[in-house]
Amino acid sequence: MSLENYPLVRDWLHVKNGRLHLRTGKVDLGQRISTALMCIAAQELALPFDTIDIDPVRTDDSPDEGITSGSNSIEQSGAAQRLACATARQWAMTAAADALGVEVEALSLEDGQISHRGTNDRCDLLDLLVALPADLPVDAQAPAWVLNGPIPDAMPRGLRDMVEGRYVYVHDLERPGMLHARIVCPPKTDAKLAKLDPTVVTRLEEKGVHVIRDGAFLAIAGPQEWQVVRAASSLAAACVWDLGPELATGDIFQAMADRDAQRFSVVDGKPDPDAPLPPTLDAPAYTETFERPYTLHGALGPSAALATFSGGQLEILTHSQGIYFLRDSIADSLGMAPKDVVLEHVPGSGCYGHNAADDAAFEAALVAVALPETPILLKYTRSDEHGREPVGTAMAVRLEARLSAEGHIDAVWMEARGDTHRGRPRAGANRAGPARLAANAARDCDVPRFVPEPNMNRHAGLHRNLDPIYTFADKRMVKALVPDLPLRPSALRCLGAPANVLAIESMMDEQAVAADDDPIAFRIRHLSDPRDIAVLEKLRDVLALAGPCDGPDASGRGIAYAQYKNAMTRVGVAVDLSVTEVGAVALHHVHLVADAGRIVDADGLLAQLEGGVLQGASWALHERVTWGPQGRESLDWESYPVLRFDNVPTFDIHLIDAGHAPSVGAGEASPSPTVAAIANGIFAASGLRLRRMPFDADAVMQAALQA
């Protein structure tokens, strides 16, 4: 898709001031896509790593590659960048041959220099690439350069500045004449402002603080940040809110079961609206339901954005993952032409999904439009972030299985039920883009209420990884969208995969135990792809060397396997853990084997896999959004606990470098099997099967009482 829309080499790279500049539409959220792209260019052009830069990702300059999500960056931008660099290399070799009066075959390329073998004649590659024709198309068949191992000293982009405290995030930006801004966050997104004490507004404005109001949208702006923080607190105390209907506070999973749903048969990983719904199994040997609550993104830094409205042009610096879609939605919201709204990605808190970054960007824009010619740096508080950001939807996965006489699983029926994962502000019918920005629910504007539509793409939304990777003869799968549940949902890392993989891998583990079989051998017997099998065989070898699980309390080892979206990185994981007398789960060791195809940046791949394990462990053991009739209650780290340093396991990660295979996404590959492995490890340690996340101490003790 990237090359179809941007087919020229100049769309992807150029030389400036003696350095190679790469262009991409994928933003770096901490997943090291910048470093990976620089590695690809260094390999394909045989350039020193430190001669390569990445241009800022801007809507008025960069390739539009949509949203940075779904672990697609390497497959999309990385593949395009490789081919563009390979095409540029071929062109430069031909240009050098012409300049030196020799055949291309007589030339060598090393360390950025093209040399005539056996002579001192040479050309500088970057000097040649300055003259790269503007209309040179990318050769989709350009062969990869012969690689000689990993690029040495590939320091992750920006890492030194981060470690030394010099890295500039969007929160740290400063501009001459800049004002700081805060919003007054209502208890509920759709709350209406019934009354605002005018004396408080007057008093604040007399102190040089600006009060911005548009319907129920309220913000404060002023030159001193602490002054603005205090003013926002004063203004919030002066508000009387009409909260409208109370939020339903019953069992969310029962509510999902009771509601009518839009149900679709999922065939080969994709919903088919024309296919009949598959019936449940006759007399299944196994029937269970697995549940995941609402969860937050848990970004350690709240969202922020800097916006300036000058001369009819709006510029926004934001850490959003989808700056092109957001640009269009903001332009639509404000009645502006998209060309007059420019968004640039500036690093902030990585969110791995749709957190409050998009809302903060739009709200900074609203303040900037109200105060033209003035840079506005708007920051959320922790309470704003937890109370306002979209949540990952609660899900319930029903699974039935039928066994053959030999104990082989030959049929499964599954239904994944929950709200939408598509809450990002992107264009659609009925002004769907503006409708998905929180402030538009408060403003005096004609933006309609957002009505979600089911995601019908392959392995998307609720049905991500619903299709088991195993070779069951009879697979019956149903996607069931249940809209209008209490909280505002959107994309969260892995989408529906954690709940679906938890269901599948718990069932596989239970059947292996019932058959008194080795959990890895049992899985291998249900696989046919040699690469799937190789990952599990390698995991088995790793565990044999590691020895048995041995912890201070009741200890156990949980196994799980998954291939993200059945098409990306394969991960086999074993988690060694123990369960204390009060039900707390202590993580000890994680053994992991992964196949991500051709490895571009091994350190980056390891970091993604480790980070995914930690987030999966945090989901499994801690995370759950709570709310009351008048809004969310999980507004800080006490009411929304996450994994702490005292429960971080040691890691033993092994990468299978399938150099013959394309590189595939790994950013979301490890969280889901980690969740399942922890559930299976708790059973191995305690004999308790937990099927509702999180598996915290209360859940363990309750399961023990019911056992």
Question: Could you write a compact summary of the structure shown?
Answer:
The protein is an alpha+beta fold and 707 residues long. The chain has 4 domains: 2-159, Aldehyde Oxidoreductase, domain 4 (2-Layer Sandwich); 170-244 and 300-388, Aldehyde Oxidoreductase, domain 4; 252-296 and 391-490, no CATH class; 497-706, Aldehyde oxidase/xanthine dehydrogenase, molybdopterin binding domain (Aldehyde Oxidoreductase, domain 4, 2-Layer Sandwich).
Structure description:
- This protein is an alpha+beta fold and 707 residues long.
- Helix content is 29%, strand content 22%.
- The chain contains 18 helices and 29 strands.
- The strands form eight sheets. A seven-stranded mixed beta sheet has the order 9-10-7-18-15-16-17. Strands 13-12-22-21-20-14 form a six-stranded mixed beta sheet, sandwiched between helices. It has a four-stranded mixed beta sheet with strand order 24-25-26-29.
- The chain is globular.
- The mean pLDDT is 94.
